[in-house]
Amino acid sequence: MSTDGRAERVFEGVLEKLDSFVIEIPSWGFANTGTRFGKFLQPGAAGTLEEKFADAAQVHNLTGATPSLALHVLWDLPGGVGDAQIVKQLVSRYGVRAGSINPNLFQNQEYKFGSICNPDAGIRRKAVDHLLDSVEIAKVLGSQDISLWVADGSNYPGAQSIRNRIAWMEEALRVTHDALDDGQRLLIEYKPFEPAFYFTDIADWGMSANLARAVGPKAFVLVDTGHHYQAQNIEQIVAWLLHLGRLGGFHFNDRRYADDDLTIGSIDPYQVFRIFHEILSDPAGGASSSIAYMVDQSHNIKGKLEAMVQTVVIAQELYAKALLVDHNRLAELQATANTVEAEECLRDAFWTDVRPLLRTWRERKGLPTDPLKALRASGYVEKIERERRTRNTSLISSYA
Ligand code: PSV
Ligand code: MN
Fold first, then answer.
1. Is the pLDDT of residue 393 over 90?
2. 8 A C-beta contact, residue 288 and residue 16
3. Which of 200, 225, 251 to probe ligand 1 with, by most ligand atoms within 8 A of CB?
4. pLDDT at position 400, please?
5. Which ligand has the shortest distance to the CA of 294?
6. Which ligand has the nearest atom to the CA of 29?
7. What angle do CA 34, 220, 66 make, to 5 degrees?
8. Is the pLDDT of residue 352 over 60?
């Protein structure tokens, strides 16, 4: 086949594979949130669950790649399972599915010394009940994943028994795991610090993976790209989790210092590319279809709708670049330890401008070829700013 013919085939292959790349967006990405020091309110921020669904639908209509919305239980379903019917109505009204269900074990006053790792058995029970309620919500909504971040930890050496807390954690996660239906999953997120600063109870991927293996086959690890120490090699973690069969999903965001929640790839796009490459080069192949790609960003400076559309576009671009890697050639180069050419093989793909390819993909789907421009032309942001401004400026202290 001629070089042109090969290029054409690669191009078509990437277009086809892009169809299966979907990324979940978070309800909290549309609400007014802030830093520990304050927040800059946006007149168009979503203040109700319906507004979050409406905004998510707008992003999906423009990008064609965000069919589901992650929900945070206390922020979105404060009435618990009783609110699930409201969500169902919003799902059918806006055409966006309910995505991962995120329990909240960090907001209540009694969690000062922990939730499922609290030394008080009564508080642990309350936290487990919340996890079980979250599983119930997921069942009613047909959500596959319970996406759990445990904020527990301790600030001072000696203040807590690390080992007792491991045992309590395992117990709570086992009970939650065993309540899952077939096909449902428990995704265990890790984070090395914040809100606790001596240790957090699930500080890294090894702890998450060990917990997942201890509690059962429906438990997997969730990698939030912002939850690592500087210089940690995230794609190596991804490779290990693929090897163990325990990679459940991602929370994507970028960081310069810590858990900065900046736009994906804004600081280090090569890292996101390397993560996607690791997944796409997994010999198990189909494994990638079970990985939940999610965004965990909540923008304080950028316009929320613009930021979300930009995020999805960037994620698609970096995924498309990773799809361009010639795996056969790379394997040959690796086998002969041809270091420079192997690296060049990755760099060739990374430096290819995939934007024309994505324009074609969108054209064929009947989507706007430039989703950001289309958002601006739609007048949607101005419309929600008009509708929500008065309410938002009078709700200065509310987060969700
Ligand atoms: C914690 O930093 C985290 O990454 C968890 O995923 C939470 O659910 C989310 O952020 C809340 O914004
Ligand atoms: Mn996260």
1. no
2. no
3. 251
4. 46
5. 2
6. 1
7. 55
8. yes
pLDDT digits (tens, 9 = 90+) for 163-189: 999 999 999 999 999 999 999 999 999
Q: How far apart are CA 99 and CA 57, in angstroms?
A: 13
Write the DSSP symbol of residue 290: G
Q: What is the pLDDT of residues 2-54, one digit of tens each?
A: 567 888 999 999 999 999 999 999 999 999 987 778 888 999 999 999 999 99
The average confidence (pLDDT) of the chain is 95
Report the pLDDT averaged over residues 190-211.
Answer: 97
Question: Residue 1: which pLDDT band, with cuts at 50, 70 and 90?
Answer: very low
pLDDT of 216: 98
Measured distance CA(293)–CA(99) in Å, rounded: 11
Q: Could you give the CA distance from residue 277 to residue 102 in angstroms, rounded to a whole number?
A: 28
**Before 119, cis peptide (omega within 30)?**
no
DSSP state letters, 86-120? HHHHHHHHHT-EEEEEE---SSSGGGGG-STT-SS
Q: What's the gap in Å between 102 CA and the centre of ligand 1?
A: 9
Identify the bridge partners of residue 219 per DSSP, sorted by sequence position. Answer: 186
Distance CA 207, CA 38 (A): 33
Model-level pTM? Answer: 0.96
User: Residue 399 pLDDT > 60, yes or no?
Assistant: no
Nearest Cα residue to atom 5 of ligand 1? 149
Pocket-testing residue among 101, 145, 224, 261, ligand 1, by greatest number of atoms within 8 A of Cβ: 224
Q: Which fold has domain 3-399?
A: TIM Barrel (3.20.20)
- CA–centroid distance, residue 100 to ligand 1 (Å): 13
Closest protein CA for atom 3 of ligand 1 = 149
Please state the domain extents for the chain: 3-399
How many residues does this entry show for the chain?
400
What does DSSP say about strands 199-200 and 219-224: parallel, antiparallel, or unpaired?
Answer: unpaired
The single residue listed with the structure tokens 């010639």 is 326
Give 222's strand partners. Answer: 189, 249
Q: Give the pLDDT confidence score for residue 36 in this predicted structure.
A: 77
Residue minimizing CA distance to atom 10 of ligand 1: 296
Measured from CB, residues less than 6 Å from any atom of ligand 1 are: 28, 102, 149, 189, 191, 224, 251, 259, 296
- CA 147/CA 99 separation, integer angstroms: 10
Ramachandran region, residue 126 (left: φ > 0; alpha: ψ -120 to 50; beta: rest) = alpha
**pLDDT at 285 (0 to 100):** 61
